[in-house]
Amino acid sequence: MLLSGAYIAQMHIPVHKMICERMKGGIDLPDIGYIDLLAYTSKAQIPLENVAVTVTATDGTALAMRLTDRNGRIDPIEIPVPEVSAGQTPDTGVIPFTPVNLYARAEGFEQVENENLQVFPNTVTRLNLEMIPLSELPSSWDKVSVFDTPKQNL
Question: pTM (2 decimals)?
């Protein structure tokens, strides 16, 4: 998706069930989904260190905060999600994912907001986040690129 020079790509990668069970440590928890992120600048994908990443529930409650490392990556963020079975019966009114908002900010770069990001059970939602230097947008020092992920018809 291209919007105002900023770019964000999102993909969902299934996590093997055995790995998920091992990560939960055998404790009876709701299913977990994960968010992984790579922050970079330019089409050459130069990693950005110290990008502040905040994930909130749609009501604004903070769920996690991370800073990217020198490789532009964060430690995966665990998000409680509905059980897998919630999305396997049609017309129940239960959505099979947890919607969250993600905010990314770095000094000297345009701010990025991703609203209604969908996190699924036993899946890694991986974001490739291109940060645009403000020097390329000098009149837009306070501009925020907002990406709204439309709800899937599942």
Answer: 0.72
Q: Which one, of 34, 32, 16, lies nearest residue 24 by Cα?
A: 32
pLDDT in tens, the chain (154 residues): 333 344 445 555 554 444 444 444 443 346 899 999 999 997 788 999 999 999 999 999 999 999 999 999 999 999 999 887 766 777 777 788 899 999 999 988 889 999 999 999 988 999 999 998 887 655 655 566 666 676 766 5
Q: Are strands 77-80 and 111-119 parallel, antiparallel or unpaired?
A: unpaired
- Dig out the tokens for 56 from the structure: 């909130």
Q: Report all structural domains of the chain as residue ranges with CATH numbers, in order of start.
A: 2-133+143-148 (2.60.40.10)
Nearest CA-CA partner of 112 in 137, 144, 65: 144
Distance CA 146, CA 6 (A): 9
Nearest partner of 10 among 84, 87, 104, judged by Cα:
104
